[in-house]
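Justification of computing resources. Each target in the renewal requires a structure prediction run like the one illustrated here; the chain below, 495 residues long, is used simply to show the kind of job we budget for.
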Amino acid sequence: MASSYRRTFLKASLGLPFSLSKLSSTPTVVDVALEARQGRMRVAGRTAYLYGYNGQVPGPMIEARPGDHMRVRFRNGLVEPTNIHYHGLHVSPSGNADNVMLRIPAGESFTYEFDLPASHRGGTFWYHPHVHESVARQISRGLAGVFIIRGELDQIPEIASAPEAVLVLQDFSLSSHGDPLEPNMMERMMGREGSLVTANGEISPALLIQRDGWLRLRILNASSSRFHRIQLEEHPLHVIATDGGALAAPEERDEILLLPGERAEVMVRGNRPAGQYRLLSHPYNRGGMMGMGMRMGRGMGSGMMGAGMMGMGMMGRSPGLSPGPLVLATLSYRGRAAKTWNLPRQLVRIDPLPKPTVYRTFQLGGGMGMGMMMGGMMSFTINGRTFDPDRIDTRAELNTVEEWEFVNSSMMDHPMHIHTNPFQVMDPDGGAARSWKDMVLVRAGDRVRVRTAFRDFTGAAMYHCHILDHEDLGMMGRLEITSRLRGPKPYDPTH
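Resulting structure tokens:
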């Protein structure tokens, strides 16, 4: 254990923008105290009855480096069980690490303790509760916080020298008195979305950029269901990292689609006339029964369905469809940069994973059917089964590579998330891997292949839809990673 010690590296306020922290070269103990609380909290300039970490929404930001030892002293101040999932971290899924099978009772405390591998990728990760059947409610009431690991990109002078800002996107459904509104069964089936959309708990907070300078912007979509199609007026977005860490090279885009639970890091160049520019979230239709016939088949492009869903209520309107774009933040120019520079053409090296020894197929299904329309129960399934915490759905062997194909036969898009080990999305055209991911979008009627290596850790890890109502309604499987499997390895001859 390293001797250096950092008592707490929590940032109580995200602050827009804030300067990069200078970290020592010696691994440290990062010791933080978190409490999940419920009560009246400030959000969007008003008081609302919410859940929050340390009494704030979003929760405080944690920073660490590869090789650090993490100690999170957690207390559950809610009236219901909860826990913490360290979303995207490559750490043990067992014991007192990223163990989502834990249920910490109301009023009790628990200490999470684990090492970040020295080889851990830098990036924007996050923490949130993961108690099955309660995840969507607890997150939609405010429980979410950013977890930043300083890594490869922070060693690139051009990027490290840029001011940095963090945006945590959340949405809430509140009464006129600030009390949370619970969704009905149809709204849960569609995936709840709140009409109050915030960034860092505010409505359109200010972002600052210097003329001829750059701004590094980290964005976390901490919504339980909402998709964000993000665009910055008159400014291209230079994507340098996604949810699994740095890209091999910057990618310039007019807009980015951010799934629930997904993160992106973008560089913005201050080369426009002085003024204010809106960071917008455009509508996105993630599907439903009325659009099923328009979305079946592979290669559906943007996935927009047309007007078929316009009558389907979801928190009072269609899922992901608002009357127009939402304003997430406002970018303003202030001052001038001391020097100008360009982004490097290459960022980090990303080696493609070797050929897998195991192939698997996962059928995504369920949702609305005649039984649901007649008032029956609903469920979401993987391979025809809903989640059972006592059942092992998939067994994998440590130090092997597998390729998984998600086949979406349902009427809705499903953003799939795999715990513990990041993956590479396989390019249908056979191109080289461009990034590591822990989230992937599987559009309705489509299929996606990902390749992953099971490294370092054994234990029970989850894979599930990150429309969190779908997870709570059963679209989750349990993966058991073991040091050695008994019997023949599964093989899908269709590959």
